[in-house]
């Protein structure tokens, strides 16, 4: 019901179908005209009366026929790279549909034909306007002007928006805080919904759900090691310490899983704690009993 | 067999007894012998993590200092000893540990006096310092003659340990993978000399020898122990390796330790002889935490002008540590929770302090050991003192003075509450006659009988006294003395064993004082007498008046030396008076009868002359003098400003004087004192002074933190006249909020630590503000909620976990009791709006912790406290189940302790013990210790108050716990004793039934009569009846409630399922004489059935108590929590009519019953006899005596088995040695 006031005038004489949309009204008017045509043809053939349903069927048939003619004609015309159908398109269509075109002029000039009035003027349905943002491009010189126009630039180039970015400190902080809070709340709610929970209230166990405490087998690890998030922050804020971190990640466990074969390697490796600057010069000087290779047992004893 | 060896090492004995010639005499008469161990080999060749067992042997090289050495006594606990050989000859041995069960026949005696003396006797009986031990080895007669030639004896002992409860602690996480992948590790622990728990030795700090230590462990593990690692060798199958350690420096067995685990190794970059070990994955933290250690080394070596005595040093960080820091020869074991990353602010100083303590103890405590227990204070004092010097250098003078004040206050408070702490106890020749500390409920004769808290305060006092000595003789001399001790020791340590040289490595009070007088030439005798040989502190009250005519300050200093923990002080005292013309020190002499002291003033009062006022430190400042008294030139007065007396001072001066002192005195101690005093002066002037301090960023941050809380208190007192926004709010806004939008806090940077600490504290203090309705003002609450909301740590290189935790604490502080609508059940719907907001924050934070855990789970800890507070204030239903789940094994230890604290608090609040399901709690010694001490601190009831909890079952459990349940850990046993004392006092608990009351009255005789309890047991029939009725008629009947409860608890566990009519016991009260009649219902035949059922009952109890030791049982019951379990045993609602009859049914009924079986008593026949009947019928009747008897038999059997399977002999009496 975009603009009922505009359309109202065209309809009142049709029996106040103000409720229907303009497009519908337009179609109804056409169909009524077709009915008149069918009725006059019937009269011409000598019928005095006809059942409403029969008229209706015939109307349907004729409508279909005309539509089909239109559709085919359009297809033929587009096939030949045109956009407006010509007479020949229609003729070919009629022939294609098995109609003897030569009989048409005679039929049109028959004596007993009835003249019917033109369909009442109704406004053609308004095609909803496409969003136009910006200027459409004109065709470049090598493209003939009858070719379709360029579509709206936003559909294939970009959409310029003109809202000011928020730079007010307070709003930014406010937003960051509430966003974080929302995320946290949603996340914890989700975890609480999907897993085991504990409740503080007996009457309503869904209020303030707490994710159930779950003992871990090595509790000190999660309690002492910085979380990934914190490590990330650290990396962002301090690049010098970042080096340290990655450096240390490579070293742990040097002396851990030393299977018998790997000892010599181990003894060559510098210990984890050597400060980078000192490392190069003193690497070979470190003499710590825990870094020495493990001795092989004396074979004599065995024998 | 002690009748040998008169001149055994008299040198040593002389030193011990130097104060008391009497003692010396006794010693020479009391013949004993102590052969010297010169070298010991410890070889542990199998450590099984799965079974938690250890197999190994030791070999002691003993130098017999006497001819005809025929017995050797060693210390050993828990160890299963397979064989003993002396010089390759099999030697018979006896194993007897009287401390396993302190009181035998414990069913009757339930008072602490008795227990304490029995416990002290038991500990004395195996005291290595006196030449005793649990393990007595008979030297084969073939070797006796060798004594003449003084050949060394080699004692070889094979032993094993199975699931040790003390001495060694196994940590085996329950995850997939090999033991190394799981991070399984084991380490030695203990309080004082506890090495005997994991290998046989002479477990004394004064018995030095050299060591060879060998540990064969899985190839993926590292064994860290004392001394130098000589080599590591694979076993033949290449699956294990053996670590060979040699410790050439004579060391006491008590200073030997071991830890084995898949440790990551870090060599100290600045000192390659120092190696650090931590558990897998923690290496980055270790690196950061240890980056500072070399500076501590340098500091100590510099002040002591002495190199670190050992050739290497190792630090090991382990999980489930017994204490945060424990020092052993050339290594220290730390709690892994001390490790931290570079992002953590708060933990950093704490970890460094722990390192410094450990290192100080390496010099004094490990390298230099003590002659006897009475000399412990010297070692603790020196290590504490040099640690203090380190604090001063690293953290500044302010921190140092603050620390000294804190320690002094703590110690003074303890002494005033509990009675004195005695540093150097001397024991006369008599056994128990002259107890130097009669006010204590434990003996201070042995370290193992001390309460943990007392020991803490002992250490505290020791270093404070060292500081007093420094004040007297100057620091230079002090350090010279230390250097002398160290250089003597290191000379001695390099010597081969000769009878007296090594004793130079032992420090005694005597030798220490001698060094002091040699070095300084000063007599510090009075000081030692006052603070070391004598317990208690001084309590001063000071006030003054200004005499304008004479221009004299009349100071009055009174003392309280009558109340407990106080002593009289005579001697000099320093008083500092700040006048208009400057600050002046006066030394007054406190004498017997002089209270008043006249101090002439230097300046006339003057008001309008504008002149700067000179302060103590030479600074000159402008002051607004309008507040002061126009006639007086006095700005403020301080008594003993240098804390050179162990004292508490209560001084009265006007409020403006305190305000001047706060603003202008530069000493942090003075500032803190004035803050404390200003709480009593809620005036706008005080407010202004405090606000000024808060704003002054040159002021020490701890003073400013203190000012926050004081300001909150003042604001509450001034509520009606307070103007402006809530206290501190505008200040906080100015300091920490954005300039453009004052309601939003700046994003965190924490670059300035001072402001970081202030930022943390202010909200917590603000939350203590209250409005007229006694609620936290809405403004403040919203302000705190906004702080949480806008907290933004993204740009910060430090973690904000402590800050966030404190914001939660602030929310907790803001809570006030809910408006109580009587008996209304707390539901979600009637939740107060503000509380709903708070609860939302708490739940969100707690849930986020599961996803992004904070360092040491600080936020979880705060949230748990907050939830408990919500419960306590009646906002949400009180329910311990949440806390119990957090208290389970598998949570971080801080979280568990916080949760347990809440459970303990709940127990108190509800007057009902919780049906604790924390049973899965794994016995981590530290956690059990914490539970017991928290229960002691916040007891569910005390001896004064009535409580339904106070029942016989509880007494039984607690008694059992301290009598036999905690024999594996000295500290735990003392904790249990403490708790028993808090709950029931020294005498027999009032809730116990009557029978023994007659005995209780004879408190003094008890000590004389060795075993008074045997009597009723031997003659169980009529005598006991009379005893009870006599005592009843004498009118000392306990309150009927006690009886009721007792019955209740006795009947409870059995009768709750079906209270039987047959149990109704009736009593007729005729002129205070009780006649007891047992009405027996038709189906009830008491005689035969009752024992069976009582046996079941005892089974039940034993099950609970013994479960930790049951092999194969994985989830272990926590002995301490059994206490919490007790109300489980209480019937929910047993017929009151049945129970409310005050009766003493048990002994009487027992009397009747046991006549039938008494013929068999004395042997084990009845035991078997009843076994036969056991399955026939189930009856509910309690048979108390029988329980004890049978349970004891059972225990006895099991002990006999576990103690010495090889010897086949088991002696259980502590007096077996005669």
Total number of helices of chain A: 13
Strand content of chain B: 15-25%
Mean pLDDT of chain A: 74
- Assembly type: heterodimer
**Count of strand segments of chain A:** 2
- What would the principal axes of the Cα set say about the shape of chain B? globular
Distance between the termini of chain B: 8 Å
Number of helical segments of chain B? 39
Mean pLDDT across the residues of chain B is 78
Going across the major beta sheet of chain A, what is the strand order?
1-2
Protein name (chain B): Transcription initiation factor TFIID subunit 2
Keywords (chain B): Nucleus, Transcription, Transcription regulation
InterPro entries (chain B): Aminopeptidase_N-like_N_sf, ARM-type_fold, Ig-like_TAF2, Peptidase_M4/M1_CTD_sf, TAF2, TPR_TAF2_C
Organism (chain B): Oncorhynchus tshawytscha
Plain-language structure description:
The complex is a heterodimer of chains A (303) and B (1218). Chain A is mainly alpha-helical and 303 residues long. In chain A, 50% of the residues lie in helices and 1% in strands. Chain A contains 13 helices and two strands; from the N terminus they run H-H-H-H-H-H-H-E-E-H-H-H-H-H-H. In chain A, strands 1-2 form a two-stranded antiparallel ribbon. In chain A, helix 2 packs across helix 3 (52-79) and helix 9 (228-237) crosses helix 10 (239-250). The radius of gyration of chain A is 44 Å and the shape is elongated. The N and C termini of chain A lie far apart (106 Å). Chain B is α+β, with helices and mostly antiparallel strands. Chain B is 40% helix and 16% strand. Chain B has 39 helices and 33 strands. In chain B, the strands form nine sheets. In chain B, strands 5-4-8-2-1-11-14-13 form an eight-stranded mixed beta sheet, with no helix packed on it. In chain B, helix 15 (668-678) runs parallel beside helix 17 (701-717). In chain B, 51% of the residues are buried. Residues 1-33, 429-433, 911-921 and 995-1218 of chain B have low confidence and may be disordered. The chains are: A mainly alpha (303), B alpha+beta (1218). The interface between A and B is large, with 81 and 98 residues.
